[in-house]
């Protein structure tokens, strides 16, 4: 025992900075988890947002498929034929949902536990997953970007207060899981860790098939050895096919994959052009993932909806423009940097998929979680600038963004929550 204590003391003394960093991020993660769970608890006790009886809210900016997943993914013994679209787009979602449901039933099976309790428990799982993503984002900023702790936590808080991050931890959705897997993938790809990267590539594809290309682009730009790119690519392709053959619904997956994948792409790629398209591109993909913009509440075909208007407060508009001007500046100055190239490739891919191809552009906000961390990383290059005056500009602007997020996102959430008790 004494030898082990001495070894522990020796490790702590030799790795004081690492131990200190681990303590800082642990405290930060516990803090955000606590805050989000408290918010989720208030929602489950004061509103019916988590009720399984709440109707769908299709084709709105905030139409997270929360009810779809609560009924179809996080349930027991549901016929697979009823979830073909989910199986094709998210092959491993039913497996994950089944595991979570099984654990939930074993831990909380009692007469007082209802549908809202199960929903609440799934939200807690997502909040913990979000915290894991935040920890890895911190590791990227601290270990790979070499930023000081204070700037790491400033950028992490920008990420956490962003519209899409907060909402996706309060509603059942796949995006919080997919977003976290992409962050972890970026970390291990940049570390040149092949085995973890292959496992993550399989999980990324299984949770959201379109993200397989996003993972592939990160691998191409982050892995230094071309042979490693081939190894990871082959390992992921072989792995996802092997895993698919083990799934109980493999016949449904293989029979419908190509036809349903392309059919969905057409269905969700609504034709838009002119000024309306430009507005949607800006607000749905660039502004609203970061900031709450003007919302309207009403009914459509007898169903409630909350959607973002194609317009925003001038402060949000200007701040969003300046944020991306900063990113463009960093890209121009650091275009040869492998880390920047990986994050930039992920961002451009999503702009092409949801912007140019217009896949799910109406719901662009929710897809923002797939590339929000890449935006944070691209913006973070401003904190590595050697010019002290310019670095201060980036730091000051980051603080301004954070203040604006607090003002608009908190008020935006409150505006939405006031409708929830009335929703049926």
Describe this structure as you would to a colleague.
The chain has 424 residues and is mainly alpha-helical. It has one domain. The protein is built from 19 helices and 2 strands. It has helices at 2-14, 16-46, 66-72, 84-89, 93-108, 115-144, 149-161, 163-168, 175-190, 194-207, 211-222, 226-246, 250-268, 274-287, 314-333, 338-356, 364-367, 372-380, 388-417; strands at 295-300, 303-308. Strands 1-2 form a two-stranded antiparallel sheet. The longest helix is centred in the first third of the chain and has 31 residues, at 16-46. The chain is globular and about 60 Å long. The N and C termini lie far apart (60 Å). The relative contact order is 0.13.
Strand-helix topology:
Layout lengths: L1 H13 L1 H31 L19 H7 L11 H6 L3 H16 L6 H30 L4 H13 L1 H6 L6 H16 L3 H14 L3 H12 L3 H21 L3 H19 L5 H14 L7 E6 L2 E6 L5 H20 L4 H19 L7 H4 L4 H9 L7 H30 L7
Antiparallel strand pairs: 1-2
Sheet having the most strands: 2 strands, antiparallel
Percent strand equals under 5%
> Topology as H/E string?
HHHHHHHHHHHHHHEEHHHHH
Class from helix and strand fractions = mainly alpha
Query: Roughly how many Å is the radius of gyration?
Result: 22 Å
Question: How many structural domains does the protein architecture include?
Answer: 1
* Spatial shape: globular
Helical region count?
19
Parts with pLDDT < 50 across at least 5 consecutive residues:
none
N- to C-terminal separation?
60 Å
Mean pLDDT: 83
Strand order of the largest sheet: 1-2
**Oligomeric category:** single chain
Helix percentage? over 70%
Number of strands: 2
């Amino acid at each position: 025992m004494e030898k082990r204590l001495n070894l522990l003391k020796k490790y702590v003394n030799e790795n004081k900075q690492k131990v200190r960093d681990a303590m800082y991020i642990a405290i930060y993660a516990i803090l955000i988890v606590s805050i989000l769970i408290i918010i989720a608890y208030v929602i489950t006790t004061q509103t019916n947002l988590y009720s399984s009886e709440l109707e769908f809210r299709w084709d709105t900016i905030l139409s997270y498929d929360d009810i779809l997943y609560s009924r179809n993914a996080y349930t027991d013994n549901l016929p697979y034929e009823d979830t073909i679209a989910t199986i094709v787009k998210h092959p491993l979602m039913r497996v994950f949902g089944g595991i979570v449901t099984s654990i939930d039933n074993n831990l909380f099976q009692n007469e007082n536990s209802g549908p809202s309790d199960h929903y609440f428990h799934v939200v807690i799982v997502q909040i913990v997953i979000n915290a894991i993503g935040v920890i890895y984002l911190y590791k990227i900023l601290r270990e790979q970007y070499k930023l000081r702790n204070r700037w790491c936590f400033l950028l992490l808080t920008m990420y956490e207060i962003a519209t899409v991050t907060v909402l996706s931890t309060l509603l059942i959705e796949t995006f919080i899981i997919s977003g976290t897997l992409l962050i972890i993938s970026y970390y291990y790809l940049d570390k040149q860790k092949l085995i973890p990267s292959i496992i993550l590539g399989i999980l990324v594809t299984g949770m959201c098939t379109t993200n397989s290309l996003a993972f592939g682009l990160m691998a191409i730009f982050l892995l230094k050895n071309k042979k490693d790119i081939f190894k990871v690519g082959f390992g992921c392709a072989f792995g996802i096919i092997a895993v698919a053959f083990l799934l109980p619904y493999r016949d449904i997956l293989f029979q419908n994959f190509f036809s349903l994948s392309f059919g969905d792409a057409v269905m969700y790629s609504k034709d838009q052009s002119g000024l309306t398209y430009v507005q949607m591109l800006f607000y749905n993909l660039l502004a609203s993932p970061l900031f709450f913009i003007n919302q309207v509440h009403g009914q459509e075909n007898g169903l409630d909806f909350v959607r973002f208007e194609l317009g925003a407060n001038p402060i949000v508009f200007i701040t969003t423009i300046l944020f991306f001007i900063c990113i463009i500046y960093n890209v121009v100055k650091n275009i040869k940097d492998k880390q920047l190239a990986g994050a930039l490739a992920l961002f451009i891919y999503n702009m092409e998929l949801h912007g140019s191809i217009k896949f799910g552009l109406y719901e662009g906000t929710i897809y923002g979680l797939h590339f929000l961390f890449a935006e944070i990383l691209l913006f973070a290059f401003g904190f590595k600038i050697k010019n002290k005056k310019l670095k201060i500009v980036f730091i000051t602007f980051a603080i301004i963004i954070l203040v604006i997020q607090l003002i608009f996102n908190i008020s935006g959430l409150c505006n939405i929550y006031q409708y929830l008790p009335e929703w049926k």
